[in-house]
Amino acid sequence: MYVKDAEQVSQEMEELDDSNNKKPWPLLCRGGFFCSQMENWADKDSPPAVVSGSNELECISEDAVATDRKHDLLTNFVPTLRSGEWSDIGGRPYMEDTHICIADLAKNFGCNLMSEEAVSFYGVFDGHGGQDASQFVRDHLPRVIVEDAEFPLELEKVVTRSFMETDAAFAKSTLASGTTAITAMISGRSLLVANAGDSRAVLSRRGIATEMSKDHRPCCMEERRRVESLGGSIDDGYLNGQLGVTRAIGDWHLEGMKETGERIGPLSAEPEIKMIILTKEDEFLIIGSDGIWDVFSSQNAIDFTRRRLQEHNDVKLCCKLIVEEAKKRGATDNLTVVLVSFHLEPPPPSIIQRASVRRSISAEGLHSLKCLLEG
C-alpha cells in the first residue's frame, strides 16, 4: 500500500483549493465505510476538519510501519542450521558422556515422510554407574522416535512416549547403570527440547540467555514434592540417599527407584518438554552436560559463545573452547557440549543501553573534589 506523506497531502489540498472543480471530499471512517463531506469546502478558507468519533480518520504512524516490518522479519525467518560438538573426559578416570547430532532424523533411518521439512535431532546423555545406559539411549532413542506412528506430526507426545519406551527397553537388559538425557529437535521454525536430568539447554535470544530446560535435582522444591508424593525421600541432597538427580533413564538395579506395572517409583524417566517458535532474534542453542554448568552460568555461557563466534564463526571450535575454558575453571566432571547455530552469520555486536539519567555534581561536591585533587 502506498501512503502519502504529510507535505504531499498538504500540497494537493492547496492545489484543490485554487481549482474551480468542486467535489465532495471522501473520508475513510472506522468500520470500513466511506463517508463524504457534503459541504463545498472549496469556498472555505481551510480544508475540512477531521471528523471525530466514529468518523475519525485512521492514520499510519512511522512506529506502526516499523513494528509491522519487524514482525515480518521475525515471522518470515527460516533458520539455517549449523552444529558442532566437543567432549572431554575432564577430571574423571573414565568417560560416561555420549552425544549425537543428526541433520535429518527420518533420512538417517531410511524413513520416507510426506513432510518436506527435515527434523534435526541433537542430544547429550550423561551416564552414571558406567557408560552402558548413555550409549544405549544414544543408539536407541532416535530410532524409537522415528518409528512412532505419530512422528513427526505430534512431536511432544512422540518424544515423551519414546523416552519412556527407551527406559522400559533398557530395563529388560542386564545392564546396571543410568543416564540423564536432554534432546533438541528442530523442524522448520519449531524448536522442541526434552529433558530428564541435570544437563541443560540454553537459547541465545539477542544475547540474552533463555533456559530451555530445568535441572532435575533433589534441591528443586517442585521435584522434591513429586518425589515425596511417590514414597521417595531426599537424604543429604540425594534421591533416596543414592542419586544426585531425580529424573533419569535406567537405574533399574537401584532398589526403590523405579517400579513396574501401575506403581510409579520416585525416579522418573518422563521428560519435561519446552517448545518455542524460532525467530530471527534467536541466535544459537547450547546443550551441555552438568559438568559445563558446574562452572558456567547460563548467561556466562551465552556471552562466552557469542564472543567466540564473533571472532571466528566456527561452531565446532567454539565447543572446544567452551570445554577448555571449563577445565581452566576447575571442572572435575566429564564435559560435553553441542552447539546449534540458526544463522550462517556470526551474532551481531551487543548494543549496550546507556542510562538516560542525567548525572550532576553539586557546587559543594565540586569544591571538595577540587581541594582533594589539589592536595
CATH topology of the largest domain: Phosphatase 2c, domain 1
Counting helices, strands and paired strands, the structural category is alpha+beta
> How many domains would you count in the coordinates?
2
Radius of gyration: 30 Å
Question: Please, how many helices?
Answer: 10
Major sheet details: 6 strands, antiparallel
How many individual β-strands? 15
**Globular, elongated, flat, extended or rod-shaped: what is the shape?**
globular
Helix and strand element order: HEEHEEHEHHEEEEHEEEEEHHHEH
CATH homology superfamily of the largest domain: PPM-type phosphatase domain
**Beta fraction:** 15-25%
Which runs of at least 5 residues are low in confidence (pLDDT < 50)? 1-7, 19-60
If you average the pLDDT, what whole number results?
Answer: 84
Assign the CATH class of the largest domain.
Alpha Beta
**What is the helix content?**
25-40%
- Gap between N and C termini: 69 Å
- Name the CATH architecture of the largest domain: 4-Layer Sandwich
Catalytic activity: O-phospho-L-seryl-[protein] + H2O = L-seryl-[protein] + phosphate; O-phospho-L-threonyl-[protein] + H2O = L-threonyl-[protein] + phosphate
GO cellular component, one term: nucleus
EC number: 3.1.3.16
Protein name: protein-serine/threonine phosphatase
